[in-house]
Structures are given as structure tokens and as C-alpha cells.
Write a structure and sequence with these properties.
Helix content: 40-55%
Shape: elongated
Radius of gyration: 33 Å
Distance between the termini: 117 Å
Number of strands: 4
């Protein structure tokens, strides 16, 4: 009788093991796919944020009037979104070089805030008396160096 019935197909345990392995692989693939989709969305948001900050920075640094820059204001982005910006200007030890701190805020419900600090060379912002004093100080320093070396 053993020869009469041939084994055709899989046993119940083999089918169950195959189903478990298949289910685990589907779960892992689905999780990986969702992570990839979320990473792509976060990257897109990050790129948009960097783009609006760069655009705002480029616009703000074209303002040559120091008083107008200190007032801050609103700016309309190419995407028709409004941003608020403010600026703080500090003098540096170098002649005609100014430290500019810009704070940018976009959005009302969930505002995105950014702060940038960079340096601008703007001779027209220097006060004439302060500029003379700095020039005199640098001139004295250079003369002292020349006397020590020659």
C-alpha cells in the first residue's frame, strides 16, 4: 500500500512555514517602501525651506540703505507666500566690514524660523569719524610693524 499512494504536494507544516516567511517578507518590504516615501517627502520639504531662505537672503542683501535694512519688513516669495524678516547690524574690528544677522519667519500656523549670520563689506555704512579713527589706528599699527622690521 505504501507504493500505491505517492506523495503529491506539500504537507500542512510546509505550507504554514512558507506563508509565515512570505508574510514577513511582505511586511519588511512595505516598511522599507514607507520609509523611502517619508524620506523623499522630508527631503523635498528641506529643499523648499533652503530655497526660500536663499531667496530671502539674496533679496535682503541687495538693500543698500542701512536704516531700511534695520527696519525689517515683509517679503513675498515667488510662491506668493509671505515672510517676515528682521536684521541686526554690528560693526566688526575690520574697516567697513559689518556682521549682519537676519531672522526670517515664514508661515502662521506652524511658523518656520531661520537665523543667518554673515558679513558684508559696505564702506557707505561706516560713520566718517569712526572710519577715520580706525584708519588711523591701522596706519599706526602698520608703521610700528615697519619700524620693527626695518
Amino acid at each position: 500500500m505504501n507504493g500505491f499512494f505517492k506523495k503529491i504536494g506539500f504537507s500542512l507544516i510546509e505550507v504554514m512555514v512558507a506563508l509565515v516567511l512570505f508574510s514577513l517578507s511582505i511586511a519588511l518590504l512595505t516598511n522599507s517602501y514607507m520609509n523611502a516615501v517619508l524620506a523623499k517627502e522630508n527631503n523635498k520639504n528641506s529643499q523648499n525651506e533652503n530655497a526660500f531662505i536663499a531667496w530671502a537672503k539674496d533679496f535682503i542683501t541687495t538693500i543698500e540703505d542701512k536704516d531700511k535694512l534695520l527696519q525689517g519688513g515683509e517679503l513675498t516669495l515667488p510662491s506668493n507666500e509671505q515672510i517676515q524678516w528682521s536684521a541686526e547690524i554690528n560693526e566688526t574690528e575690520n574697516l567697513d566690514l559689518f556682521s549682519l544677522m537676519i531672522q526670517i519667519e515664514k508661515g502662521e500656523n506652524e511658523p518656520i524660523k531661520s537665523a543667518l549670520r554673515f558679513y558684508l563689506l559696505r564702506p557707505e555704512w561706516s560713520e566718517s569719524e569712526e572710519r577715520k579713527q580706525l584708519l588711523e589706528k591701522k596706519k599706526t599699527y602698520i608703521e610700528s610693524l615697519q619700524q620693527n622690521y626695518f
